[in-house]
Write a structure and sequence with these properties.
This protein is an alpha+beta fold. The protein is about 55% helix and about 15% strand. The two termini are about 35 Å apart.
Length: about 425
């Protein structure tokens, strides 16, 4: 039941102690405001980094040949390891974890269309590469490579938006032919690209690239996805076993990690997630610390308030006031201050996070979006934190008040 007299007394006490109330409220608002800001910033960093993995599979592996750094079985050091079709066969037949597999042949060519010219980076890949690297075709912009393109050695290309912009300007590139190294390629699709670079790129069938640019033998990279590996330890065991098989094929020391580079994205992903889980824990500890500081501030102020009013409480008890009514008044003051200023801090903290998020979403593509994305906090978490703060504020006011009302009226009236 709403007791108007009791609340009038609360507001009267607050009015008499404006500075003390403001300083107490400010510490509460600042605590929950910083809590929201810290969590928003942590979420922004984590979302920004993990979003870099969304455009591609987190379980892909890429290998490429390098120079050996050790002599082995009569072979000298500084011998170049060239990947070839035998590596593809080994992965398909001896690596049960491998799912989608693609050889990669890379080359750079001068391209032209009508009066427009550019230098383009071509990658010969198989249709499986779409699943490996998370390639996505823009809506209504054609298709990716398929098995018929591979089987018939078609000179077709899937280009990136930058190449579309440079060569075809505002025209629809689908079905149009451009010249690359003296040969005509037909555009069959345009893929999405999240990077902020300005390099013209295109995918062509692996079979075509092998015939035209690799003389039918050898390749630059091999990429494939893996399944069944969930932990860093499992990935380390897999990489050691995989490297041993490659060393038997190319005859190099399996301990020579420089001979063939193995880039395992799942390992990098697990490491990144581990780092940001640690960062999130650290932010939570700091955020909770700021909330505790606010609670301590409320407790200290309530101790001062109760001590100043102990004489008043003695008079009220002598006149017949029940301890529960005195206790209720103090708790109402504590809860009211904590609730009002806690809500202000929560509103400002959540609002600032939403404003920054809106500004990032409305801004043009920027490198910042790849390291800081969606810096917001779940409203439920913010409300939960505020509820904990209110309960803590009530507890902080309860014990000083309980001590005050437990003093005998005669003794309390002697307090100054």
């Amino acid at each position: 039941m709403f007791d108007l007299d009791s609340w009038g007394e609360v507001f009267s006490t607050i009015k008499k102690n404006k500075l003390r109330t403001f300083l107490t409220g400010f510490s509460i608002s600042w605590g929950i405001f910083m809590f929201c800001i810290l969590l928003s910033a942590g979420n922004g960093l984590k979302n920004g980094m993990t979003s870099n993995f969304e455009s591609r599979s987190t379980n892909n592996v890429k290998i490429w040949g390098r120079y050996t750094s050790m002599s082995y079985k009569g072979f000298p050091r500084d011998r170049y390891i060239k990947l070839d079709e035998r590596d593809l066969l080994l992965i398909r037949e001896q690596i049960p974890e491998a799912v989608s597999i693609s050889g990669i042949i890379s080359t750079s060519l001068s391209v032209s269309y009508n009066s427009y010219h550019a230098d383009c980076s071509f990658s010969g890949v198989t249709p499986d590469y779409m699943n490996i690297d998370g390639v996505k075709i823009k809506d209504g912009q054609g298709r990716f490579l398929n098995e018929m393109d591979m089987k018939n050695y078609r000179k077709v290309a899937v280009i990136n938006p930058r190449m579309q912009e440079v060569l075809f300007q505002k025209d629809n590139p689908l079905g149009k032919q451009f010249i690359a190294g003296g040969l005509r390629y037909t555009v069959i699709g345009v893929f999405e690209e999240n990077s902020w670079g300005d390099r013209e790129r295109a995918y062509i069938p692996f079979s075509t690239a092998s015939l035209l640019y690799s003389h039918g033998w050898g390749l630059d990279n091999i990429a494939f996805t893996i399944s069944g590996l969930e932990t860093k330890k499992e990935n380390e065991v897999f990489e050691e076993r995989f490297r041993n098989k490659l060393s038997n094929l190319h005859i190099f020391d399996p301990k020579d990690t420089r001979s063939i580079s193995v880039w395992n994205q799942l390992t990098n992903y697990l490491q990144t997630i581990g780092i940001f889980n640690g960062l999130s824990l650290f932010i939570w500890v700091i955020g909770i610390g700021t909330l505790i500081a606010g609670v301590i501030s409320v407790s200290n102020i309530m101790l001062i308030t109760v001590r100043e009013r102990t004489h008043e409480f003695g008079i009220r008890k002598a006149l017949g006031a029940k301890p529960s009514s005195i206790l209720g008044t103090i708790l109402k003051e504590s809860i009211f201050i904590t609730s009002v200023f806690g809500y202000i801090g929560m509103f400002l903290g959540v609002g600032l996070g939403e404003m920054v998020n809106s500004a990032l979403n409305n801004a043009e593509s920027s490198p910042l979006q790849y390291i800081f994305h969606n810096p917001t906090i779940d409203v439920g978490v913010a409300v939960g934190a505020m509820c904990i703060l209110i309960i803590s504020g009530a507890v902080a006011g309860y014990f000083p008040a309980l001590k005050a009302v437990s003093i005998l009226p005669v003794k309390a009236m002697k307090e100054k």
